[in-house]
Amino acid sequence: MINTTIGVLSIATYVAWTATVIYDRYQKDLKSYKHIKPVLTIEILFNIYLLYLLINADSAFLAITILTFLLHVGIGIYTEIFRPQAQVDDKVMLRYWSYLGVDFGLSILTYFLVINSSL
After folding, report:
1. Of 15, 31, 47, 109, which is least packed with CB atoms within 10 Å of its CB?
2. How many beta carbons lie within 10 A of that of residue 104, not counting itself?
3. Can you tell me the distance from the alpha carbon of 40 to that of 29, in angstroms, rounded to the nearest whole number?
Protein backbone atom coordinates (compact mmCIF):
# COMPACT_ATOMS: atom_id res chain seq x y z
CA MET A 1 0.00 0.00 0.00
CA ILE A 2 2.78 2.44 0.88
CA ASN A 3 4.64 1.60 -2.32
CA THR A 4 1.53 2.31 -4.41
CA THR A 5 1.01 5.61 -2.60
CA ILE A 6 4.62 6.59 -3.28
CA GLY A 7 4.17 5.75 -6.95
CA VAL A 8 1.00 7.81 -7.23
CA LEU A 9 2.57 10.75 -5.38
CA SER A 10 5.65 10.62 -7.60
CA ILE A 11 3.47 10.69 -10.74
CA ALA A 12 1.49 13.59 -9.27
CA THR A 13 4.75 15.45 -8.58
CA TYR A 14 5.93 14.80 -12.14
CA VAL A 15 2.61 16.09 -13.53
CA ALA A 16 2.79 19.21 -11.33
CA TRP A 17 6.37 19.93 -12.46
CA THR A 18 5.52 19.42 -16.13
CA ALA A 19 2.38 21.54 -15.88
CA THR A 20 4.34 24.34 -14.19
CA VAL A 21 7.01 24.31 -16.90
CA ILE A 22 4.42 24.33 -19.69
CA TYR A 23 2.41 27.10 -18.00
CA ASP A 24 5.54 29.25 -17.61
CA ARG A 25 6.36 28.75 -21.26
CA TYR A 26 2.77 29.62 -22.19
CA GLN A 27 3.00 32.86 -20.21
CA LYS A 28 6.38 33.69 -21.77
CA ASP A 29 5.02 33.09 -25.29
CA LEU A 30 2.01 35.32 -24.63
CA LYS A 31 4.22 38.10 -23.27
CA SER A 32 6.89 37.88 -25.98
CA TYR A 33 4.98 36.94 -29.11
CA LYS A 34 1.36 37.85 -28.26
CA HIS A 35 0.31 34.40 -29.46
CA ILE A 36 1.03 30.76 -28.70
CA LYS A 37 3.70 29.11 -30.81
CA PRO A 38 2.90 25.67 -32.34
CA VAL A 39 5.96 24.23 -30.60
CA LEU A 40 4.10 24.56 -27.30
CA THR A 41 1.33 22.29 -28.59
CA ILE A 42 3.92 19.73 -29.67
CA GLU A 43 5.56 19.95 -26.24
CA ILE A 44 2.21 19.37 -24.52
CA LEU A 45 1.53 16.29 -26.67
CA PHE A 46 5.07 15.02 -26.06
CA ASN A 47 4.62 15.37 -22.30
CA ILE A 48 1.25 13.59 -22.41
CA TYR A 49 2.96 10.72 -24.23
CA LEU A 50 5.75 10.65 -21.63
CA LEU A 51 3.16 10.60 -18.86
CA TYR A 52 1.46 7.63 -20.53
CA LEU A 53 4.81 5.80 -20.67
CA LEU A 54 5.54 6.69 -17.04
CA ILE A 55 2.17 5.45 -15.80
CA ASN A 56 2.75 2.17 -17.62
CA ALA A 57 6.31 1.97 -16.23
CA ASP A 58 7.62 1.55 -19.77
CA SER A 59 11.38 1.59 -20.25
CA ALA A 60 10.83 3.81 -23.29
CA PHE A 61 10.18 6.64 -20.80
CA LEU A 62 13.70 6.22 -19.45
CA ALA A 63 15.24 6.03 -22.93
CA ILE A 64 13.38 9.11 -24.19
CA THR A 65 14.22 11.05 -21.02
CA ILE A 66 17.92 10.26 -21.36
CA LEU A 67 17.96 11.11 -25.08
CA THR A 68 16.13 14.39 -24.45
CA PHE A 69 18.56 15.23 -21.65
CA LEU A 70 21.57 14.54 -23.88
CA LEU A 71 20.08 16.67 -26.66
CA HIS A 72 19.56 19.58 -24.25
CA VAL A 73 23.08 19.17 -22.84
CA GLY A 74 24.43 19.38 -26.40
CA ILE A 75 22.39 22.52 -27.10
CA GLY A 76 23.59 24.04 -23.82
CA ILE A 77 27.24 23.28 -24.54
CA TYR A 78 26.91 24.72 -28.05
CA THR A 79 25.33 27.87 -26.62
CA GLU A 80 27.99 28.19 -23.90
CA ILE A 81 30.86 27.84 -26.36
CA PHE A 82 29.65 29.69 -29.45
CA ARG A 83 27.08 32.13 -28.00
CA PRO A 84 24.98 32.26 -31.18
CA GLN A 85 22.80 34.97 -29.71
CA ALA A 86 24.35 38.10 -28.28
CA GLN A 87 21.65 38.41 -25.61
CA VAL A 88 22.44 35.06 -23.93
CA ASP A 89 24.10 35.95 -20.65
CA ASP A 90 25.44 33.90 -17.77
CA LYS A 91 22.28 34.27 -15.69
CA VAL A 92 20.13 32.79 -18.45
CA MET A 93 22.53 29.89 -18.90
CA LEU A 94 22.65 29.25 -15.14
CA ARG A 95 18.84 29.04 -15.12
CA TYR A 96 18.99 26.71 -18.14
CA TRP A 97 21.43 24.31 -16.46
CA SER A 98 19.45 24.44 -13.20
CA TYR A 99 16.21 23.64 -15.03
CA LEU A 100 17.88 20.83 -16.94
CA GLY A 101 19.27 19.27 -13.76
CA VAL A 102 15.97 19.47 -11.87
CA ASP A 103 13.96 18.18 -14.83
CA PHE A 104 16.27 15.23 -15.47
CA GLY A 105 16.65 14.37 -11.80
CA LEU A 106 12.92 14.52 -11.15
CA SER A 107 12.13 12.44 -14.24
CA ILE A 108 14.63 9.70 -13.35
CA LEU A 109 13.61 9.63 -9.69
CA THR A 110 9.93 9.45 -10.62
CA TYR A 111 10.57 6.61 -13.05
CA PHE A 112 12.40 4.50 -10.48
CA LEU A 113 9.79 5.21 -7.80
CA VAL A 114 7.05 4.08 -10.19
CA ILE A 115 9.03 0.94 -11.10
CA ASN A 116 9.55 0.10 -7.43
CA SER A 117 5.95 0.86 -6.45
CA SER A 118 4.50 -1.78 -8.78
CA LEU A 119 1.77 0.48 -10.16
Report:
1. 31
2. 17
3. 9
Is there a contact between 100 and 72 (Cβ–Cβ < 8 Å)?
Answer: yes
Reduced 3-state DSSP string for 28-84: HHHHHHCCCCHHHHHHHHHHHHHHHHHHCCCHHHHHHHHHHHHHHHHHHHHHHHHCC
> Pick from 105, 103, 114, 112: which is nearest to 5 by CA?
114
For the chain, what percent of residues have pLDDT higher than 70? 94
Question: What pLDDT was estimated at residue 101?
Answer: 96
E strand or H helix at 105, and its extent?
Answer: helix 90-117
pTM for the model stands at 0.86
12 and 106 in contact (C-beta within 8 Å)?
Answer: no
Average pLDDT over the chain reads: 90
Nearby residues of 4 by Cβ (< 8 Å), 6 or more positions away: 117, 118, 119
